[in-house]
Amino acid sequence: MASPSLVWFRDDLRLTDHPALRAALDRGEPVIALYVLDEESDGVRPIGGAARWWLHHSLASLAERLAERGSTLVLRRGRAAEIVPAVVEETGAGAVFWNRRYGGPEREIDAGLKEKLRGDDVTVASFAANLLFEPWTVRTGADKPYGVYTPFRRAVEKMPSPRAPLPEARKIPGTSKAPASDDLDTWNLLPTKPDWAGGLRETWEPGEPAALARLREFLDDDLGDYAFSRDA
User: Is residue 156 a contact partner of residue 7, using CB atoms and an 8 Å limit?
Assistant: First the structure.
């Protein structure tokens, strides 16, 4: 019997350069994509209004892109330390993968989940995905974080090059019976009374495709002059 792989999306609502998703695909089992809106865990700060607007549209974009590739985005709200094991139990997932976060409370949640899930004989792995170098890899000779930029830069320049970006996932096999999901609209992330997000809608487009378009524009039009125009 198949034991699906659970990919827990967090600050990485994309399909390109996503090590946790790649690990799930390489495992060769159906993939369950999960996002948990956790505003309850100790030390985790609820996000502000503009970030909530951005999150709503980013999740909608991710759900659409997953559906195009054969998978489904499962939305749950609550304490991640409770939600993730519950989804594992519901689905019989044999592995859970996520990309690392670096805030203190978030790291505590992740460490606790690793211990819990491994105790239940579930494969768990986390990955570096959002930084060129993780905080603990660039240290002074006294094994402390750098406090001055120039020595930090020099140390980074001596380190091995970061890994190459991973390609976009083109096909993501879903499960025949996806677990129940919240309706995104019931999370009430969008402002309504009043709707103050008009300026955001006119200026920004959330979602991975729009982010990649902005990156391409920067590389094509602005990178060459960055050293001169960055302070303009």
Answer: no
